[in-house]
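Repro:
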Amino acid sequence: PGALDGAYGYFHAFGGGYDPTYLDQLGKVSMVATTGLKPHSGCRHVHPCVDATQVLLTKVTPVLDQITGIEIGTYRSAVTPAFRVNPTPEDVDAAGYSLPATVAVVLARGSWYREDIATYDAPECRRLWPLVRAYVDPEIEAAHPQKNGCVVRITMADGSHYEGRIDYAKGEPENMLTASELSYKFRRVAGNLLSPARIDEIFDLVGQLEDLDDVVRLLELASPQS
């Protein structure tokens, strides 16, 4: 009794209480269907920058040493506090929160997984750090938190400009991962633990989870030792 709504219950421990009518939704509204999934590593607030940069890369493959300027327009929470715009992250953990490191790595490698972030201080990335200007875009800020958009622009030595823009970070309910994108992420992060055949079977079982009599086989497959 009181585990949820008591003075020391879940609702008060993690917030300012609760609306009793919320309980009326139990069993009727599936929050899983509207829960975002992170497609990339690092802080969620850098993901809009990752996605906008990847959109930009569909338009051009820039020669990195010809880039003379980079602008990142986003919402306020993505650029504050200061570690989010740190132009010289001191280690790989700090790089995972830094917009200058994010855009540099994604321009260099195209993705933002752990092994990508580990290259944050490669010479081609370091060169780009001081070229980055991150700012609060008024239109994007006005739409936040309903949207978590970003715009990334680069300027080249010849004066040309390229831009990538998104309204919702990939993985939000409004921009959900496709089945193939979710499969790719799972294979990427589990590939050093599980065999391709085992990953295939796990993916197949999860796809029919509601029809399984039990989950013993799924648990066996998910254990590298079994």
